[in-house]
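Researcher: Next entry in the queue.
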Amino acid sequence: MISIVMTCYNPKGSPRGSYAARCAVSLYNRIRCDQEVELVLADDGSEDTEYANRIKDYIKWSVRMTTGKRLGIGGSLNRVLSIVNNPWMYTTDDWFLTEKLDLTNPLKLLSRGYDFVRLGPVHPNLLCETKFDGYWWLDVSTVTGFAFATRPFLATKEFYDRIGPFKEHVNAYDTERDYSDRVTAKKAKVAYSDVSLSGPWEHIGDYEVGTLYP
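Model: Structure for this entry, 214 residues:
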């Protein structure tokens, strides 16, 4: 079982529910995996959660949602990861998958001992070593830059248990910076999968919530 965890926040009157539905359909149409897949919507206390029902109408994966008091992206991830115990893929409600994404090789990298595998887009100024064993990947150093980021990735549950809960009651960028620092401090093993360094994702929509505080 692979759980695709999509963080979502849909303020009343905003278009972000439609973003989430579009992105969920793109995942369903383009992700390839030889394991059972479920979609878990990590809602951050949205006033309007009707988007979840629309997603259930559009895709045939099992879809479930966690929600509660608005705590920021960290709180919504912590709620989800209290009920997910298998490998999980992270994305958010405004990253649209533009091309086929096969999770076969990223899952192999987890079995090689990597804690998490970035699926793009990557950050600049990272130190990496190219690797090959039937497929290509990058071994990412945690010495500089955002080795960890809240952009699409695949991770083990043990990774979360080791690094600890995400920071709550702050905006998305502060949550990301805090977790990246802890990943570096604990020397987590990071890989970048054999996908385009810039994708295969498109950041959609003009309604941003990353700077909002809960």
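Model: The radius of gyration is 16 Å.
Researcher: Noted, moving on.
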